[in-house]
Queue: 2 jobs
Job 1
Amino acid sequence: MLAVPSIDVRHLRKVYGEVVAVDDLTFAVQHGAVLGLLGGNGAGKTTTISMLLGLLEPTAGEIHVLGIDMRRQRYAALPRMNFSSPYVDLPHRLTVRQNLLFYGRLYGVKQLRRRIDEIAELMQVAAFLDRQTGKLSAGQKTRVALAKALINKPDVLLLDEPTASLDPDTADWVRTYLKDYQAQTQATILLASHNMSEVERLCDDVILLQSGRVFDRGSPRELIERFGREDMEQVFLDMARGRGRGLEALRRNEAAK
């Protein structure tokens, strides 16, 4: 087990003009853990993931992934990371196979063609490997994005709405696969999702984000009990509607500053 967290974020801040997208965000994810990052639209989830990947430059703060400073040495960490997001399209004119070949080479995957065949079967995309990615359905694109995210067997996996556009049966299958993958490889996973049953099933720990700041944090069970609710969907709604102990804790934290 690593002596340092797989993901270590300290006082992270991102500002666009007068808009503060992420505000003094601090958290750590231990090796082999699954952290859920939850919040409404505009809460800062995707911005945080983009900064973790080095796609966005933080306004302030520090990010270390696998013990590596992402501002100074991110290329040392990126081969051991990967991500999936419905907001980032793969090249539409390339076939699925061509996309996987391109990203596999980018990540330096050994025995790449064998790995493509393997991950295509696992993600159930083998039937359309030679079809242009732009001609796939939304659900097929989601599965291809997951195949790309797993092509290099990453140690750190960042997932933004990983089961978006999937039918319930396929989404359930993907969650089972991710759970098994994490258990077998001890990969660290950061999951941003609006699917609360998915969060309860996959996550060891959850951060509730509101306006770019931590509203509350705990395991799904701890948050459900703290809010006095039956499930994470009710917890999420309490946060969105300005109710619950999380909001009271946030106000106490603000008053103490």
Job 2
Amino acid sequence: MSSSFQRWTVTEPYLDLHCALGEGPYYEEATNRLRFVDIIKKHLHTVDLSIGPKSLKTLQLDMPVGVTADIEGIDSKKKILIGGKSGMYILDRETGKYELLKRFFDSEEKDERLRSNDGAIDPQGRFWVGTMNDFWVGEPQAEGSLFRFNSDLSRKILRSSLTIPNSIGWSRDHKMLYFTHSTEKRIIAFDFDGSTGDISNERVFWQHDGNGDPDGFKMDAEGNIWQAIYGESRVLKISPQGKVIGEITYPTKCITCPVFVGTELWVTTADDHDKTKPYAGAIFKVDVGVGGLKDFKFKLEKDIPGL
């Protein structure tokens, strides 16, 4: 490895929360709050970073939520978009109630075996989200898909027969879409047409050769991908050329998803069922000297009562 390879070591958590499956961290810049989910425990957690860990608030939901996003023109302190059990919903953060905007499939029966996993909003305000088998199914089968929900609530399946679809992100010039398929241990790249939302020219951008599986990622302002590796206690910094140029190591094994807060990279983690090691399911942060690309908001064309 070259001498320019960067290394960071994190030893202590910011919040030792014992999430079963912490995921979907999202930084609310306007209020300096961090929100994230626990998919297994069906929690939405929020922390005011100006106050610290003692400000943690937890909303108990009755379905697994894999990802959250803001909606353009809507106060995110009150309502946000979520990828949930059967599709895309609007969650009222004050009451915990939610409203289904659009199902993944038109039949309840087809949705029953599935739940949402990771997702993101594209530069034009469309919601991309992957589905996978719900926990009760057991070992995930190749029944997942990658969906795109448009602003008019129409939907399209871009890829099917996926097992554990994960993070989605766009290059700085918005001409490429990156997508992690955990079970294939790879980041896949596509050419992205912003005007239509279509993807083409599928190719392998980066292939992992370790024992762990690539989970969530975030893009930084320089075009690098910060890829969490579930099962290997680390996040890898991957250049736009697909080379690993940095590594953050953590004191717990199952790193799930990162998010940028200024120049700090925060991560969620999951329970690794190893009782000899602390901090499984905790939240960690480290300053990596670069910021992230901004998150886009979902553009909703249809009038929804109560919004």
